[in-house]
Amino acid sequence: MIGALWAQDLNGLIGKEQVLPWHLPNDLKYFKEQTIGKTIVMGRKTFEGMGSKPLPNRETIVLTNNKTYQATGVTVMHSVEEVLEFTKTQTQMVMIIGGGVIFNDFMPYYDCLYRTVIEETFEGDTYFPPVDWSKWEEVSNVKGTVDEKNKYHHRYEIYKRRK
């Protein structure tokens, strides 16, 4: 199974210069809860935007067209097809975590979508690709806690592909 996991603002913005344009510790905790012990897949730019270090307790796949690209502690793959073959060997969901091009490339293959909506608008340069929501059924919608560290209203939504 393949899932997409991302946070976005009200306009679908997901990034600014390969990093998140907001600080929301609750969402970082949610991200960790949803990915710990699983395989995560991201593009090279997203990986480099995260400091070029794999996240602990997760197998990390970096997807890039650059055939000579290497990074310590990760598996480098060069095509969507290569990742899809890998997912067939997995018992847990493989999570696609960005960026915009990678999210778009895997759109036909998602079984689940995990979306955090931050109820604000921000400046940035990367958006989640358009989703045909008629193909998805919402199975969870939980409001996040707003406090002194998490100043933006937000919600966690989970969708499963309609059969």
From TrEMBL:
One annotated GO molecular function: dihydrofolate reductase activity
First-level EC class: oxidoreductase
Sorted UniProt keywords: NADP, One-carbon metabolism, Oxidoreductase
Record EC number: 1.5.1.3
Domain DHFR positions: 1-161
Keyword check for NADP: yes
Domain of life: Bacteria
Any Pfam family matching the protein: DHFR_1
Reaction equation(s) it catalyzes: (6S)-5,6,7,8-tetrahydrofolate + NADP(+) = 7,8-dihydrofolate + NADPH + H(+)
Pathway stated in the Swiss-Prot or TrEMBL entry: Cofactor biosynthesis; tetrahydrofolate biosynthesis; 5,6,7,8-tetrahydrofolate from 7,8-dihydrofolate: step 1/1
PANTHER family linked: DIHYDROFOLATE REDUCTASE
UniProt family annotation: Belongs to the dihydrofolate reductase family.
Primary role: Key enzyme in folate metabolism. Catalyzes an essential reaction for de novo glycine and purine synthesis, and for DNA precursor synthesis.
Protein name: Dihydrofolate reductase
Natural source organism: Enterococcus lemanii
